[in-house]
Task: structure prediction
Amino acid sequence: MKKIFVKISLKDEWLKQANLPDIEYPIPIAVFEEIIDSGKMIEFSQMLFWLQEYSSQAPGEWMDYEEAMLRIAVKLAPYDPRPQIGIFGKNWFLMCGKANLAKEIVTIQRSDYLIASIQNYGDGRLLACSYRPLDSKAARYLVDLGVNPARDGTVCTKSNNWEYALDCSARIGNVHASRRGEAYLCHWQFGLGLDNDKTLLDNWYSQRDSRPIPPNVLAKQIFINYEQMSMS
Result:
């Protein structure tokens, strides 16, 4: 079910101080009056979550919010120079780091753009890497695919997270999501840009050079979405 948002313009002075772009920022209409009446300051974590939520349901606008999402995520992410960072929630685990786009991967894509990639960490768990800011659907993909497999098979349909990711990438719902302009999953057996018969797909192959977002910034985006979803 889609949330209804209103958009507000924030003061130039505050935007400059916060180093944020001068755009209209979405706020869920359910909390808009409460915020306006109380004069309560909006937290950066809330702003990022609302941007993620609005972006996920705005096929024609999602790229307009990328700069703001990334700047807020960088602002919130604690300094951590480690090349790989593990994050977890109540029933999920995910490693954030750099993936090899020339090897087998499952990607999160939107329109003609690479959003994130998922690779087998080597033990069936997942290594995630992102190249653009995550909307809510992309962030939830990563959490859902990182869910801890239950011994009785009630959580994952496969024995480990990598097999589960492969299974999810093959579902017909990805085709429908792609047509709607939403984030969706795709499996690249021979690396990004090589089709199943190894035909070269120029647009995707050229994105092998995509610059990864630092693991600490990726981890923060995922965890803020997870926390905010748990609170809502």
The radius of gyration is 18 Å.
